[in-house]
Amino acid sequence: MPFDPNDYAARGYAIVPDALSPAEVKALRARADAIIDAFDPEAAGAPFTTDESRRAIDRWFLESGDRIRCFLEDVAGGTRAVNKIGHALHAHDPVFAPLSTAQRWAEPLRAAGLTAPRAVQSMYIAKDPGVGGAVAPHQDTTFLHTTPSTVTGLWFALADADRENGCLWALPGGHRAGLKRRFVRAGDTTRFVELDEAPWPDDGWIPLEVPAGALVVLHGLLPHKSDANHSARPRPAYAVHFVDETAKWSPDNWLVPA
Ligand code: FE2
Fold first, then answer.
1. Residue 13 C-alpha to ligand 1 middle, in angstroms?
2. Looking at the domain assignment, is residue 254 inside a domain?
3. Which residue from 48, 54, 19, 1 is spatially nearest to 240, judged by alpha carbons?
4. 166 C-alpha vs ligand 1 centroid, how far in Å?
5. What's the number of CA atoms in the CB half-sphere (13 Å) around residue 147?
6. What is the pLDDT of residues 16-67, one digit of tens each?
7. Ligand 1 (ion): which residues have CB within 5 A?
8. Would residue 196 count as lying in a domain?
9. How far is ligand 1, taken at its centre, from the CA of residue 46, in Å?
10. Does residue 153 belong to any structural domain of this protein?
11. What's the CATH code of the domain at 241?
């Protein structure tokens, strides 16, 4: 057993050191760099939050569930740094896909309670020095919903992640408080449905500082966030989200899985 399931049930996350070898970390980073280097925002028709309509931005996102697309940082001044690559690296990318299979991660996924895991979403998060923005507190189940709730995230550190370069922060045990909001889709429009208006607590957050190659298993209801990268080092990570095939996929999820 890679981690104690009781511990995971109590805290809502588990850390598995050395889940990826240094060679695998290097290969994933090189592959992501190649995708980003080949990305020409204008040729691809990628919208910018600074100068494109909300509608174009929504479309770029909503069409990405079964594709590999780059998303830009939302930074003033029109920088074109890539924020992330999503959302079907696990399905279509020759380097990311083999590392993303449920079979390879069956053991930690089983420890997290998934008996029939299926990868439905993946993203490479660049979090470059200076431009890598903060991620507001959220639960992954807000964006990927099943009944019962089964969403489980595998988050791989592709560099040492610490407080300076914007590591994950989690609210241990916060997954037991239920789902706060849902992000639902109707055709080409999306909206948030608030289920619990109480604000996120200010206290109780802890930094998940992990070395490169570590895996953080995240319960889909666990509140988590990250700060902007204030260091001179990148903080790349790769996240794959799984659901259990025995659960009912909510048809109003934004994502149409690959
Ligand atoms: Fe998340």
1. 12
2. no
3. 19
4. 14
5. 6
6. 999 999 999 999 999 999 999 999 887 777 776 555 567 777 888 999 999 9
7. 140
8. yes
9. 23
10. yes
11. 2.60.120.620
CA of 140 to the centre of ligand 1 (A): 5
Does the residue 255 lie in any domain?
Answer: no
Report how far ligand 1's centroid is from the alpha carbon of 171 (Å).
13
Long-range contacts of 62-65 (CB under 8 A, 24+ apart): 62/185, 62/188, 62/190, 62/254, 64/88, 65/121, 65/254, 65/255, 65/256, 65/257, 65/258
Say how many Å lie between the CA of residue 216 and the centre of ligand 1. 11
* Tokens (6 digits) for 36: 């980003």
| Least confident piece of the model among 26-35, 67-76, 90-99, 181-190 | 67-76
CA of 189 to the centre of ligand 1 (A): 21
Minimum mean pLDDT range among 43-47, 110-114, 163-167, 214-218: 43-47
How far is ligand 1, taken at its centre, from the CA of residue 108, in Å? Answer: 18
Structural domain total, the chain: 1
Give the pLDDT of residue 45. 75
Q: How many A from CA of 141 to the centre of ligand 1?
A: 9
* pTM over 0.85, yes/no: yes
pLDDT exceeds 70 at position 78: no
Range of the domain at 57: 5-249
